[in-house]
From TrEMBL:
Keywords: Cell membrane, Membrane, Transmembrane, Transmembrane helix. InterPro entries: DUF318, UPF0718. This is Permease. It comes from the Bacteria. Pfam families: ArsP_1 (PF03773). Its main location: membrane. It is a multi-pass membrane protein. It is found in: Cell membrane. The chain crosses the membrane at residues 18-36, 48-69, 90-119, 139-168, 223-243, 249-273, 294-316, 322-343. One of its GO terms (cellular component) is plasma membrane. Belongs to the UPF0718 family.
């Protein structure tokens, strides 16, 4: 958050923005419980503290991993997925989408550069659909909250959704759709600068002072980011488990039918927070009666329709492609949930 020097109005703006941060809820929610329901204060705080402490090893490993990938320049490998035959590009784009160590805004110049270089829309769609669903830190956080079977199912769903979207887009283009798909794009509007599309990763990044600096900067940034959002997630999960009746959750998204999975996907699209907050909240919902298939559908649909993911797509393509992105994401979420529910 940028510091603003000056008189009363800017300082008020700072205070207003601070009130909208996750830290406000992390601090305020337990205080409100203590004030209005002191008997449950210990239950809420101890639940959140135990859950957060159990996730700390995963947070530490995730932070080191993503910082090392950034310092090494691993983003450069992703560009190789968009070279060669279209079918190969779709497959590799779906696979690499789950490994891309990009922040939400970095996806925009990266994909814009690929489109400018002539990468087919089908491969870009595969990357777009798989990228919001999983990355190394998200995989670890999901495993910590929901277990490795669920985390692996989410990773498989990410790749499968990318493949599904890529090949459907290829078929639609072959049928004459999406003739004018790409919006005009100006590099630099995101603020992250252009993503590197050439060169090789330097895995021994610690030998380069500049890369060591990148590692330290990313370590601090990602540690603060994950701690902030996971603290919020576990406070919300504690409140959910304490105050939301289990039968209410079970009646809406319980059971093993396709209806509950479809409802979870539809609810997940507008209600989803981010890939770090969602797993702990879904852990609470599954304890309250939400089915595993519905939980996966909620997570997949919500990731695809998150504001950063949609903004990346909206900024680069015209409305028909954006609508296809949303439709493919929702359909893939329901299918992923139904298949996961059938095999567990």
């Amino acid at each position: 958050m940028a510091d603003v020097a000056g008189g009363g109005a800017p300082q008020s703006g700072i205070g207003h923005r601070w009130l909208l941060t996750p830290w406000t809820i992390v601090v305020l929610a337990p205080l409100l419980v203590a004030a209005f329901d002191p008997a449950r204060f210990g239950t809420v705080t101890s639940f959140a503290a135990r859950a957060f402490a159990g996730t700390l090893p995963y947070i530490a490993f995730a932070v080191v991993l993503i910082s090392a990938l950034k310092a090494a320049g691993a983003e450069r490998m992703i560009a190789d997925a968009f070279k060669g035959r279209e079918v190969r590009m779709i497959v590799l784009a779906a696979l690499f989408g789950g490994l891309a160590p990009f922040c939400s805004c970095e996806v925009i110049p990266f994909v814009a550069g690929l489109l400018a270089l002539g990468a087919p829309l089908s491969a870009v769609m595969a990357f777009w659909l798989s990228s919001p669903l999983i990355d190394p830190p998200t995989l670890l956080i999901t495993a910590a909250a929901l277990g490795w079977p669920f985390a692996i199912a989410k990773a498989v769903s990410a790749v499968a959704l990318g493949l599904f979207g890529g090949f459907v887009t290829r078929a639609l283009i072959g049928a004459g759709m999406f003739g004018d798909a790409i919006r005009p794009f100006s590099q630099g509007g995101c603020g992250c600068g252009p993503s590197p599309l050439s060169g090789r990763p330097a895995w021994r990044f610690w030998t380069d002072p500049a890369r060591r600096h990148v590692f330290g900067r990313e370590f601090g940034h990602n540690a603060l980011f994950l701690v902030k959002w996971l603290a919020l997630a576990y406070v919300l999960e504690a409140l959910l488990v304490t105050y939301v009746p289990a039968d209410l959750i079970a009646s809406a998204v319980g059971g093993e039918g396709l209806g509950s999975i479809a409802v979870a996907a539809l609810v997940g699209m507008p209600a989803y927070l981010n890939s770090y907050v969602a797993p702990p909240l879904l852990a609470g919902l599954t304890e309250q009666g939400m089915s595993a298939g519905a939980a996966l559908a909620f997570m997949v649909a919500g990731a695809v329709s998150s504001i950063p993911a949609m903004a990346a797509v909206w900024s680069l393509v015209h409305k028909p492609v954006f609508a296809a992105y949303i439709g493919l994401g929702l359909t893939g979420a329901i299918l992923s949930g139904a298949i996961f529910q059938a095999i567990i």
